[in-house]
Structure formats: structure tokens, C-alpha cells
Design a protein that fits this description.
GO terms for molecular function: DNA binding. This is Helix-turn-helix domain-containing protein. It comes from Aquibacillus halophilus. Residues 19-73 form the HTH cro/C1-type domain. The longest helix is centred in the N-terminal third of the chain and has 23 residues, at 3-25. α2 (30-37) packs across α3 (41-48) and α2 (30-37) crosses α4. With 92 residues, this protein is mostly helical. It contains 5 helices and no strands. It has helices at 3-25, 30-37, 41-48, 56-66, 70-83. The protein has a single domain, classed as lambda repressor-like DNA-binding domains (434 Repressor (Amino-terminal Domain)).
């Protein structure tokens, strides 16, 4: 696997980890968040595992379900990426 693809995979995993952390902090199960966000809970599970890369619309729905501001989430993602030597800009 080339460097760019490895970075993309790591970014998906990190975003999924952050979604899961925020969902658990909100005291929600995957089915609860999925219902509020109008997405399938199996899809949410795969997002949290870093298997899928959410579209902007899906991400917006999830953040609304979690009652998280987009800018706050972006900061959280940027901080996590920085820990791993990644940038939010580029491929994701």
C-alpha cells in the first residue's frame, strides 16, 4: 500500500474513533445515534471502525445527532491528525 493510501486509511480510522468517543460521551448506542441521524446503525458501526468515509451530508447528520458544532469537531479532528503527523487538508 502506498503512503497516500495509508494516510487516507489512518484518517478514516481516526475520524471513526472520534465519532465513537463523542457518541459514547453522549451516552448513546449506535442504534440510537443512527436513528437520530437518519442513517443505518450498521453504516455507523463501519464509520466508527474506519471502514467507510462519510460524505459531508452524513457527517453533518451525525454531528447534529450528537449536538456537536462542526467547528468543534473539526478542531478535534485536526488535533488528532496532528498527533499522527497528518493534516486535515489533502485526501480524506
Amino acid at each position: 500500500m502506498d503512503q497516500k493510501k495509508q494516510e487516507t486509511e489512518l484518517k478514516k480510522q481516526l475520524v471513526g474513533k472520534i465519532i465513537k468517543k463523542n457518541r459514547e460521551a453522549a451516552g448513546m448506542t449506535q442504534p440510537q445515534l443512527a436513528e437520530i441521524s437518519s442513517i443505518d446503525y450498521k453504516y455507523l458501526g463501519k464509520l466508527e471502525k474506519g471502514i467507510y468515509n462519510p460524505s459531508y451530508l452524513k457527517m453533518f447528520e451525525i454531528l447534529n445527532g450528537l449536538k456537536i458544532n462542526h467547528d468543534e469537531f473539526k478542531k478535534e479532528v485536526e488535533q488528532e491528525f496532528k498527533k499522527h503527523g497528518l493534516s486535515l487538508h489533502g485526501n480524506l
